[in-house]
Recover the amino acids of this structure.
């Protein structure tokens, strides 16, 4: 294999340069503020853990996609491929005395080895929450409403969230498809978003005309609350009907959260994670072809760590959000001040810079050999250059002149 | 249809003419000069739909990245490119097969037989699933040439009428998959433009079903 060039990086990782890094931090802060405003407490977990933590309950099929290495003891360790399993582990161990429900949030780097390059990083940042120990529709509505509030706070507009219910499909398939292998394949084709194969499967494997009609209708069941009435007509399955009731309650709560205009019910929706047991959702925003957030209810997972508890949650892809923001509006940089000075002017420049920073200006003091020469240099537009020469501030910036007069008075220079 | 524009990536070449016929039958506005123009981006007369004309193999890429909301492309390309898209409708046109072909009486005795193909993923997956070890050689075109000049014993390629194979003295040995033209959608567009896309699908579905009934 060819030796990498000195500045090369592994596939799927990226450097984030200024000013994007600042914007990223800003977005993370805004989202974290919404999370904490809803009473979710931040948690941090190790970057790597035993592979067994993530394989617990064998709920995942992405084992190949984990970054693995061997610890000195010989045990396999992986870079975390999600935050849900570590949080389930903590709730069942370190926090096992803490009464439910527990609300936790995080902002963390996630690692996955990707097959395809398109829009998929090997290291990416997820901001998310988990609400553990509440099985109610209110909890699911809270998760969805919180996701929308966080996206809004991050500055995203024009987004849409699709909501589905995995038990609706389960119940419906149980009712209309007798052969279990066919049920599995129907689920797989829907999850792969391959409606053509799904319809072909229905046409060849389902003998009953009414069942065929029902199964062909399901992937097209999307829209507003009215969709639920149509979905109800398709089934007598207790499980499927309970799923519709559940979505109805969630929707009612969401109208009170005033977020229902950004929502669409999609009963054909399935997500790639296998641990979901109820409501699921996925969000998109204009200009970016990949989901910016996804989540749902996973009532089985926490119990696999020893403390059975219902749970719901979601993640927001920070890099995806940044992609959307960059396409929506170019970043506007804050004005920065650069105070240039020569040796003789160290006093008062350092003091003046501190005075300005205390008033929330962004200020850099830079010692130079020759102030006049430096003033001639081209600089970014958002950098305002000021120079000191023999105790005098040279600038036409009225605000800064006034500030300097203030500074001189307060220190009787 | 509302004023919000849909962008549709069309595959140039083999299936273009049939695709346009189908779109017109479905009452989807198509620019009049789309057959003759050399432009790569064309807008329908009413401005409702923008069409991008591209090489078939690039259609899934445009759609996955969201620069096109919808794409019309062969199943062979979809399987080979393996992008994360909604596959909404089988248009029942551009029907052909992806097959293994070779010279008539060749049987592979080599420890590592060679297969030439424009479809390295399909070829590799196929032989892997059958437990055969082969070396897949990627070629960009004229794949039929490979067995004739001894580059590979077999090829994996699309077979429509079988005429090209026949003229080059090759025969089909095994069929790998049936191919037809599909309508695909970007995941974001499928959500954000769901009304427009559902309408587009409904119109096309109506004429596709008709065609199937005639047969």
């Amino acid at each position: 294999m060819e030796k990498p060039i000195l500045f090369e990086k592994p596939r799927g990782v990226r450097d984030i340069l200024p000013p994007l890094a600042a914007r990223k931090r800003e977005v993370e802060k805004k989202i974290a503020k919404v999370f904490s405003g809803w009473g979710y407490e931040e948690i941090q977990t190790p970057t790597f853990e035993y592979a067994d933590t993530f394989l617990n309950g064998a709920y995942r099929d992405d084992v190949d996609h984990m970054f693995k290495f061997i610890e000195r003891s010989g045990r396999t360790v992986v870079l975390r491929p999600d935050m849900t399993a570590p949080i389930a582990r903590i709730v069942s161990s370190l926090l096992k005395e803490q009464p439910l429900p527990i609300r936790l949030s995080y902002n963390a780097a996630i690692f996955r080895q990707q097959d395809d390059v398109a829009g998929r990083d090997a290291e990416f940042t997820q901001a998310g929450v988990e609400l553990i120990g509440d099985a109610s529709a209110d909890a699911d509505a809270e998760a969805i409403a919180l996701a929308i509030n966080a996206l809004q706070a991050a500055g995203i507009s024009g987004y849409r969230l699709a909501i589905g219910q995995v038990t609706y499909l389960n119940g419906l398939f149980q009712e209309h498809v007798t052969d279990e292998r066919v049920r599995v394949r129907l689920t797989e084709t829907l999850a792969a978003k391959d409606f053509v194969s799904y319809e072909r499967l229905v046409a060849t494997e389902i003998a009953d005309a009414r069942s065929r009609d029902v199964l062909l209708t399901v992937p097209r069941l999307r829209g507003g609350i009215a969709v639920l009435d149509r979905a109800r007509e398709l089934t007598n399955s207790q499980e499927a009907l309970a799923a519709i009731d559940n979505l109805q309650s969630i929707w009612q709560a969401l109208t009170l959260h005033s977020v229902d205009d950004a929502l669409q019910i999609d009963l054909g929706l399935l997500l790639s994670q296998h641990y979901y047991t109820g409501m699921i959702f996925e969000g998109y925003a204009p200009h970016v072809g990949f989901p910016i957030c996804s989540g749902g209810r996973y009532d089985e997972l926490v119990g696999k760590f020893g403390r059975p508890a219902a749970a719901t949650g979601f993640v927001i892809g920070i890099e995806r959000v940044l992609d959307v923001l960059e396409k929506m509006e170019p970043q506007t940089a804050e004005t920065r001040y650069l105070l240039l000075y020569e040796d003789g002017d160290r006093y008062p420049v350092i003091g003046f810079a501190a005075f300005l920073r205390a008033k929330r200006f962004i200020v850099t003091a830079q010692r130079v050999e020759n102030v006049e020469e430096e003033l001639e240099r081209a600089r970014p537009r958002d950098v305002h250059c000021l120079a000191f020469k023999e105790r005098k501030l040279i600038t036409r910036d009225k605000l800064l002149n006034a500030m300097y007069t203030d500074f001189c008075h307060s220190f009787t220079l | 249809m509302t004023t919000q524009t849909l962008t549709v990536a069309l595959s140039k070449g083999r299936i273009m003419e049939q695709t346009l016929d189908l779109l017109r039958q479905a009452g989807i506005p198509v620019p009049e000069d789309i057959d003759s123009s050399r432009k790569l981006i064309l807008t329908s007369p009413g401005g409702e739909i923008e069409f991008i004309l591209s090489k078939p193999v690039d259609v899934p890429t445009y759609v996955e990245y969201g620069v096109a909301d919808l794409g019309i492309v062969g199943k062979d390309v979809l399987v080979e490119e393996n992008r994360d898209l909604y596959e909404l409708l089988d248009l029942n046109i551009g029907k052909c097969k992806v097959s293994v072909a070779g010279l008539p009486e060749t049987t592979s005795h080599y420890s590592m037989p060679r297969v030439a193909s424009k479809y390295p993923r399909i070829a590799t997956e196929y032989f892997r699933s059958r437990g055969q070890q082969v070396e897949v050689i990627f070629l960009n075109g004229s794949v039929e040439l490979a067995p004739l000049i001894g580059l590979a014993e077999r090829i994996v390629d699309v077979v429509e009428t079988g005429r090209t194979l026949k003229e080059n003295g090759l025969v089909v040995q095994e069929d790998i998959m049936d191919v037809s033209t599909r309508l695909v959608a970007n995941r974001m567009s499928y959500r954000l433009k769901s009304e427009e896309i559902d309408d587009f699908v409904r119109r096309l579905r109506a004429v596709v079903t008709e065609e199937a009934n005639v047969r």
Observations:
- Chain A touches chain B at residues 115-116, 118-119, 158, 160, 162, 193-197, 199-200, 220, 222-223, 264, 282, 284-291 (CB under 8 Å).
- The mean pLDDT of chain A is 91.
